[in-house]
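Format notes (please read before filing issues)

Several people have asked whether sequences and structure tokens are stored in separate files. They are not. Every record keeps both together, in the order shown below: the sequence lines, then the token lines. Line labels are part of the format and must not be stripped during preprocessing.
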Amino acid sequence: MSFVAKIGAGFRRTGAFFSDSVKELKKVRWPNRKEMTSYTIVVIGTVVFLTLFFYFTDWVFSNLLQFILK
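Then the structure lines:
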């Protein structure tokens, strides 16, 4: 197979990839507005909870270490 033929085959595979991608995206069940709002609230709540958890855990261990080292 010549170099030019390999390049042409590569372009055909790339086109097939994008064509298959579009077909698969049409099969996806996208969330509606209510579901997306719910998911967003859960993610933001989880991030806030974990932020506070790690902040207070760090604070406790910092104070404990300072107490031990004094």
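For reference, the curators noted about this record: The first helix runs from residue 3 to 27. The chain has a mean pLDDT of 90.
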